[in-house]
């Protein structure tokens, strides 16, 4: 189970809204923390974050646009913030974080590759010392 760091700041999900078909007479729970695997709806992942889902209903059956950047001032609905400085700043922070994760993966991959190369060199050296053929 992943640990959740308490935060009042929602996690960015995507830089545009989710278009979803909703119907009247039903309670919906919008994910406000950004951790749900069932975006844009709550799956309980907010526990420990200090954030809560937004319960809402709709009046008519149609497609609604629910915020994906988690920066709207009109939750659960998109209010265009994703195109403004506040939303773009969150997107930029998300990209920088992903870039950092990618760099860490590349560094780890280079280390493993380097270790594998050292094992290969040692293996060839042992083979030569033992008089074996090198293929
Ligand atoms: S997706 Fe968040 S305001 Fe539009």
From TrEMBL:
High-level lineage: Eukaryota, Fungi, Fungi incertae sedis, Chytridiomycota, Chytridiomycota incertae sedis
Name the UniProt record assigns to this protein: Iron-binding zinc finger CDGSH type domain-containing protein
Keyword Repeat: no
GO annotations of cellular component type: mitochondrion
Matching InterPro entries: CISD, FeS-contain_CDGSH-typ, MitoNEET_CISD
Ligase is among the record's keywords: no
Residues covered by the Iron-binding zinc finger CDGSH type domain: 15-52, 53-88
Recorded superkingdom: Eukaryota
Keyword tags: 2Fe-2S, Iron, Iron-sulfur, Metal-binding
Names of the cofactor(s): [2Fe-2S] cluster
Record PANTHER family: CDGSH IRON SULFUR DOMAIN PROTEIN HOMOLOG, CDGSH IRON-SULFUR DOMAIN-CONTAINING PROTEIN 3, MITOCHONDRIAL
Annotated Pfam families: zf-CDGSH
A molecular function (GO) term: metal ion binding
